[in-house]
Design goal:
- The protein has 130 residues and is mainly alpha-helical.
- The chain contains three helices and two strands.
- A two-stranded antiparallel ribbon has the order 1-2.
- A hairpin with an 8-residue loop joins strand 1 and strand 2.
- The chain is elongated.
Length: 130
């Protein structure tokens, strides 16, 4: 579920529909790397220094952090599985028994056919080698 929401958010950003975006009037940067942002659309003379977000490396250097990250991903996956399983339309008991019976009968028929073919081919090969 979280991945789906993140994908939607990233698609909006790719299209340029970033909901929280503040229009920027200038690309100048301050000494600390901040970018001035427009406060009001009507009055462009008012500006405020907004610090840029720094990206954090995705890979953690400690072994415990990697394990914790793995556990969080596994738990998120299990939550998503639970949500998807609630959407499944399960067959009734009668339908499940009927389908199981059909499968068992077909397996018996195919195994008998393959057994007959195997015995006939092995006896044919014995005759050829005599």
């Amino acid at each position: 579920m979280g991945r789906i929401q993140r994908k939607k958010a990233s698609q909006k950003k790719k299209k340029g529909i970033d909901e929280g975006a503040v229009p920027q009037a200038n690309t100048e940067t301050a000494a600390d790397g901040a970018v001035p942002a427009v406060i009001s659309d009507k009055d462009t003379t008012k500006r405020q220094i907004v610090p840029q977000k720094r990206s954090v490396p995705a890979v953690k250097s400690t072994q415990g952090g990697a394990v914790r990250n793995f556990v969080e991903k596994a738990l998120q996956f299990l939550r998503e599985v639970k949500v998807e399983l609630k959407k499944v339309t399960w067959p009734s008991r009668k339908q499940a028994l009927g389908s199981t019976l059909v499968v068992i009968i077909l397996v018996i028929i195919i195994s008998l056919f393959l057994g007959v073919v195997d015995i006939s081919l092995s006896s044919l090969i014995r005759l050829v080698f005599k």
